[in-house]
Design goal:
By secondary structure, this protein is an alpha/beta fold. The protein has three domains: about 1-85, Arginyl tRNA synthetase N-terminal domain (Gyrase A, domain 2); about 120-400, HUPs (Rossmann fold); about 405-585, Isoleucyl-tRNA Synthetase, Domain 1 (Orthogonal Bundle), CATH 1.10.730. Helices cover about 55% and strands about 10% of the residues. It is built from 22 helices and 14 strands. A five-stranded parallel beta sheet has the order 7-6-5-11-12, sandwiched between helices. Helix 5 (about 130-150) packs across helix 20 (about 520-530) and helix 19 runs parallel beside helix 22. The chain is globular and about 85 Å long.
């Protein structure tokens, strides 16, 4: 990489010009700003304490050194404390010729090493997947693919929260008011059917609380003593004790939900190497709690509940087992973490979970360390912001969520309407058009979700996401289709460029700009992996598509009279299209061959 070569040369310059070692950490090499001449810029200000000279004199001395030492640096200019270097055309053309036909340009070969385990999705079996789950699934899947593209051994896992009081609420509502309904009899996906009963439970429960308050009971007491909640808690105890009837109903209703989840996962294009179930792991957590009591890392209160005192770590006491012996989420996560470590011995254990659980993962890491699990240091919480809507937050129990399947249907309809209004398809069969609408709708949804930095809360706007202009998935997809059309026309005219050597071609500024952006792809991929950030890939590929469209508008391609230049521009277009397809693939987005 040219940045690395410049860094090494700058360190050598420090020794030869100033008799000093320049620490690598203070060296800043960045892209030259568009308004200035040059390709790469070195920030000189941090180097002044070494040169003991002013910024312009230091920059001038270093510029002359680079030109004298590196054939790839042809000239320089100084703007205050910034040294702008111009990189020789032959450097960019050598890069272009060497990489344009590589199938895996920018990607690394898989390395044989301990895996990175990434947990994402983690749904509850009392409701269908919703808008928040979409961001989680897309983040987890895309981060996994980005790490794999960097050579990491990645294992994608899912933990299904298939037990607990919330599951019992759906079961109890079905038992009381379901009249034997099944997905088949209700003509409804199983996860949606079970979710309806979860909402129904909440409605009936609120009615009971209101009645108790009206009879004179304090609201807080009413919320705890409402008969429905007491019955749901009793059902959970029956489940944990292995009650045959409760377990049978639980198994049947969860089966409905799993079938529904599978449909949604397939449509979203996400998958897992292994699925864990809370019902299999929560007892493992209980065993760790017993170990903690024996080691006196944990303590038991008079009511029998078990806690961990984290006050010495600046936190508070954390409940691990309730007084009635039932588990909490932390119990299950302790057991699952240990099970995963035993399964994979991961180099990192990454949890893709919303930022409202930041405290939870801090506690998980601390408790495991207190239990003597040194690998707890390798737990990483990929904390992401929530997805908000113009009308406020979603609440599952109140039925105000945006269902994932409904959203994908809405996106399909919007993509179809927008595409037909703009006429961005020609002579497509009904089957081809349907495939295109699916591609565009999912591309719009995924890109809109992934272009925002994971740490940020985001506002989702379906109409804005489907726009064919601006920073959207369809804009990039349309650019790819344009490139593929251009390449097909170039081939049909008899142009051949696959085996040509373009090292001596004279580049126009827009051609050079496009090659420089293509050069950035491997480094962008590496940074995206280091930061667990698909947003870096999304915004890179948008910049690439935008740069290509400017190139397309300003440069003659198919009508260029010089056959060498025409072939070069077609080769550059093809390389750009392949890179767009590669980058979008890391986001889980397909790109059309034609529109």
């Amino acid at each position: 990489m040219i940045n690395e070569l410049l860094t090494l040369t700058l360190i050598q310059a420090g020794k030869e010009l100033y008799g000093q070692d320049i620490p690598e950490k203070i060296i800043q090499v960045q892209k030259t700003r568009p308004e200035f001449e040059g390709d790469l810029t070195i920030v000189v200000f941090p180097l002044l304490r070494i040169s003991k000279k002013g910024p312009e004199q230091t920059a001038g001395e270093l510029g002359n050194y680079f030109v004298s030492q590196l054939e790839n640096v042809t000239s320089f200019n100084v703007i205050k404390g910034f040294l702008n270097l111009t990189i020789a055309d032959h450097f960019w053309l050598n890069f272009f010729d060497k990489n344009r036909k590589l199938d895996n340009f920018g990607k690394n070969e898989p390395r044989e090493e301990d895996p990175v385990v990434i947990e994402y999705s983690s749904p509850n079996t009392n409701k269908p997947l919703h808008l928040g789950h979409i961001r989680n699934n897309l983040l987890g899947w895309s981060v996994s693919e980005i790490l794999k593209a960097n050579g990491e051994n990645v294992k994608k896992v899912n933990l299904v929260n298939d037990r607990g009081i919330h599951i019992c609420k759906s079961m109890l509502a079905w038992k009381k008011w379901g009249d034997g309904a099944t997905p088949a009899s209700a003509s409804k996906k199983g996860d949606k059917l079970v979710g309806d009963f979860y909402v129904l439970f909440d409605q009936k429960y609120k009615e009971e609380v209101a009645n108790l308050v009206a009879s004179g009971m304090e609201k807080e007491q009413a919320e705890q003593e409402a008969p429905l909640l007491v019955e749901a808690k009793q059902m959970l105890k029956q489940w944990e004790s292995g009650d045959e009837q409760v377990r049978k109903l639980w198994s049947e209703m969860n089966g409905w939900v799993y079938e529904g989840f599978d449909v949604t996962y397939k449509r979203l294009g996400v998958e897992f190497d292994k699925i864990y179930y809370e019902s299999d792991t929560y007892l493992l957590g209980k065993a760790l709690v017993e170990e903690g009591l024996e080691k006196r890392v944990l303590f038991k209160k008079e009511d029998g509940s078990v806690w961990c005192d984290l006050s010495s770590d600046g936190l508070d006491e954390k409940l691990l087992l309730r007084a009635n012996g039932t588990s909490v989420y932390m119990t299950q996560d302790l057991g699952t973490a240990e099970l995963r470590y035993n399964d994979y011995h991961p180099r990192e254990l990454v949890y893709v979970v919303g930022n409202e659980q930041n405290y939870h993962f801090e506690v998980l890491r601390l408790i495991l360390k207190k239990l003597g699990r040194s690998w707890a240091e390798n737990i990483v919480h990929l904390s992401y912001g929530m997805v908000e809507l113009p009308h406020g937050k979603m609440k599952s129990r109140e039925g105000t969520v945006v269902d994932a399947d409904d959203l994908m249907d809405e996106m399909y309809d919007t993509a179809k309407q927008t595409t037909e209004e703009l006429g961005k398809y020609n002579d497509f069969s009904a089957e081809e058009a349907d495939k295109l609408y699916h591609m565009l709708s999912l591309g719009a949804l995924k890109y809109f979700m992934l272009k925002v930095d994971p740490k940020k809360t985001m506002m989702f706007n379906p109409e804005e996401s489907i726009d064919f202009n601006g920073n959207t998935g369809p804009f990039i997809q349309y650019t790819h289709a344009r490139i593929r059309s251009l390449v097909r026309k170039g081939e049909a005219q008899g142009n051949r460029w696959s085996d040509m050597d373009f090292k001596e071609i004279e580049m126009a500024p827009k051609e050079k700009s496009l090659i420089k952006l293509l050069y950035d792809y491997p480094a962008t991929l590496e940074q995206a992996a280091q930061n667990f950030s698909p947003a870096m890939i999304a915004n890179y590929v948008y910049d690439l598509a935008k740069e290509f469209n400017q190139f397309y508008q300003e440069i003659t391609i198919l009508k260029e009279e010089d056959s060498g230049k025409r072939a070069f521009r077609l080769a550059l277009s093809e390389f750009t299209g392949n890179t767009i397809k590669s980058a979008m693939g890391l986001l889980g987005i397909e790109v059309p061959e034609r529109m």
